[in-house]
Design goal:
- This protein has 443 residues and is of the alpha+beta class.
- The chain has 2 domains: 2-185, no CATH class; 208-437, 2-Layer Sandwich (Nucleotidyltransferase, domain 5).
- The protein contains 11 helices and 17 strands.
- It has helices at 17-49, 55-62, 73-95, 140-143, 192-197, 200-205, 240-254, 262-292, 318-327, 330-343, 388-397; strands at residues 2-14, 118-120, 125-128, 133-137, 149-155, 165-173, 176-189, 214-220, 224-229, 234-238, 295-302, 347-352, 371-372, 376-378, 385-387, 421-426, 431-434.
- The chain has a 7-stranded antiparallel sheet. Strands 12-11-8-9-10-16-17 form a 7-stranded mixed sheet. A 3-stranded antiparallel sheet has the order 13-14-15.
Length: 443
C-alpha cells in the first residue's frame, strides 16, 4: 500500500473568541493599513514609470515602514504578495485589451478599515494539538501595547485531524473570527485490483482508492449547474436550488432597514451555508459516481473568462443572468471537486470551454447556429440530436482523448446524448437524487 501527501484546509471556530477578538481585530486592521500603503506606493510608481513593481521590490521598499512592523514579518509579506498577484491579474486584463478591468482598490470605507485576512506562516504560529491551541505571533509595534502573542483555542469537526500544520489564516467572517488551518496529510492508496476485491467493510476502512482508465467531462452552467458526460451516458444537475436561494434571500434582505444589521448578517450567513452545502453535496456525488464507473480523469470546463465577451469586455447577461452568474461559485466548486477526487485517486484537469457549445461532438462541425431553443443541439451535417449541455460536456471530455478520426467519429452511438439522467437537490435530505424522488423544493 503506497502513501501520498495531500494538502487540506480545515475551518475551525475559536472557542475563546471574546479573549482574543480585540487582538485579532488589531491584526486585521493592521493588514488593511499595510495593503493601503502598498497600494498607494504601487499607484505612485505606476504613474511615474508605467510599470507595476514586483513583490520582491515592494517588500524591500516597505520593509522599514511602520505598518510593515505591525505584523509578523511573514504575515506582512503575505499581504504584499496578495496585492502583487491582484495587480498582475489586472495588468494581464489590460494587456489583453480589456480596458474595463479595474485595478485593486483600497481597503477603507471612509475613516474605517475592514478586518483583512491575516496569514501566519511557519515562523508566525505554534501549534499545540494536545490542547487544541494555536499561538499566533504579533508584529513588533503591537507587542508594545498587548501581549506578545494570541493564544487561540480552536474547534473543528469531530472527524477532522489537525496535523502537520503548514499555514494558518485568521479570517473574519459573518461577524466573528475563524481559523483556516492548512494541513499536510498522508493518504493511503491501494491498487484498483485490490479496490475491486475489497468488501464494503474493508472499503470503509480505506481512505482512498486508485482510479480507473475512463474519462468524464463536466460542463458548468447556470440552468444546469453541472452536466457530466461519461462517453456512453450523461447526467444533468440543475441549479434550481441555487436560483431559489438567490431570489429568496435577496427578497428577505430587502426587508432589512440596514444592510449591516444583525438580521441582514444572519441571512447572508444562512445563504452562504446553503450554497456551501449544495457545492459539497454535488462535488461529492459526482466523484462517487465517477469512482463507480472507474473514471480516472475528470475534465472540467474552465469558466475563467465567462464574464468577458470575445473582445475581453464585460459581458451583459441581462438582469437575471447577471444575478445568477455572480451568485454562482464555479471556481469554488471545481476546487472542491479537485480535492474530493484526489481522495479517490482521480485527477481533475481544467480545460477551456471555448467553442464547446458550438461544435458537434460527433463529427466536429463548428456552427454557432446549431444550438436551438430549449437546450437542444442539432447538427445539420451529421444529423446528431443532443441535449446542448451534454454536447458541450462531451466536447470537454474529448479534449484529453484522441481525435475524432481515431475514436470512432460518425460511427459512434450517440443516442444517449439526447436522453440524460437528471439528479435534483433534495433539501430534506441534503443530497442529490433522481428527479422522481424529489418532492420538497421549498427554500
Amino acid at each position: 500500500m503506497a502513501k501520498r501527501t495531500v494538502t487540506r484546509t480545515h475551518v475551525a471556530s475559536i472557542r475563546n473568541q471574546q479573549q482574543v477578538r480585540d487582538g485579532l481585530d488589531s491584526l486585521g486592521f493592521a493588514a488593511s493599513k499595510l495593503w493601503n500603503v502598498a497600494r498607494w506606493t504601487i499607484g505612485r510608481i505606476w504613474d511615474e514609470t508605467g510599470t507595476v513593481p514586483g513583490e520582491g521590490t515592494l517588500k524591500s521598499y516597505l520593509k522599514g515602514n511602520e505598518r510593515y512592523t505591525d505584523l509578523n514579518a511573514q504575515s506582512s509579506q503575505a499581504v504584499l504578495e496578495e496585492l502583487s498577484e491582484a495587480f498582475k491579474s489586472w495588468y494581464g486584463h489590460r494587456r489583453n485589451g480589456n480596458q474595463n478591468a479595474n485595478p485593486p482598490g483600497y481597503r477603507k470605507h471612509g475613516d474605517d478599515h475592514p478586518r483583512s485576512t491575516v496569514t501566519f506562516k511557519e515562523d508566525g504560529f505554534k501549534h499545540d494539538p494536545k490542547n487544541g491551541r494555536i499561538r499566533l505571533s504579533k508584529g513588533r509595534n503591537l507587542k508594545a501595547h498587548w501581549s506578545d502573542f494570541l493564544l487561540c483555542e480552536y474547534e473543528t469537526r469531530p472527524d477532522t485531524k489537525v496535523e502537520n500544520v503548514q499555514l494558518v489564516r485568521a479570517v473574519y467572517e459573518h461577524g466573528e473570527w475563524r481559523l483556516h488551518i492548512v494541513c499536510r496529510h498522508q493518504k493511503s492508496v491501494i491498487s484498483d485490483w485490490h479496490a475491486r476485491r475489497s468488501t464494503s467493510c474493508e472499503r470503509h476502512e480505506v481512505e482512498t482508492s486508485s482510479s480507473g482508465d475512463r474519462t468524464a467531462g463536466i460542463d458548468l452552467g447556470i440552468c444546469n449547474f453541472a452536466t457530466v458526460s461519461y462517453g456512453d451516458e450523461a447526467t444533468l444537475y440543475p441549479g434550481g436550488a441555487l436560483k431559489e436561494d438567490i431570489y429568496y434571500f435577496a427578497k428577505e434582505r430587502a426587508k432589512c432597514d440596514d444592510s449591516t444589521s444583525r438580521e441582514a448578517r444572519r441571512l447572508d450567513r444562512k445563504q452562504t451555508e446553503r450554497r456551501s452545502h449544495f457545492l459539497h453535496a454535488l462535488s461529492k456525488h459526482i466523484v462517487s459516481e465517477c469512482a463507480k464507473r472507474s473514471v480516472g480523469t475528470i475534465v472540467v470546463g474552465d469558466l475563467g473568462g465567462i464574464r468577458d465577451d470575445e473582445n475581453g469586455d464585460a459581458r451583459n447577461w441581462g438582469d437575471q443572468g447577471n444575478l445568477n452568474l455572480h451568485g454562482w461559485a464555479f471556481d469554488r466548486f471545481t476546487s472542491m471537486l479537485e480535492y474530493k477526487a484526489e481522495d479517490e485517486g482521480i485527477s481533475v484537469k481544467r480545460e477551456s470551454e471555448r467553442d464547446t457549445s458550438k461544435t458537434c461532438s460527433t463529427c466536429g462541425t463548428k456552427d454557432g447556429n446549431q444550438r436551438i431553443e430549449r437546450g437542444l443541439y442539432v447538427c445539420d451535417d451529421c444529423g446528431t440530436v443532443a441535449n446542448a449541455d451534454i454536447n458541450g460536456a462531451e466536447n470537454i471530455r474529448r479534449k484529453v482523448l484522441p481525435n475524432l478520426a481515431t475514436d470512432g467519429g460518425r460511427d459512434r452511438d450517440n443516442g444517449w446524448m439526447a436522453q440524460p439522467a437528471v439528479r435534483l437537490f433534495d433539501r430534506s435530505e441534503g443530497r442529490f437524487a433522481p428527479r422522481e424522488q424529489v418532492v420538497d423544493r421549498e427554500p
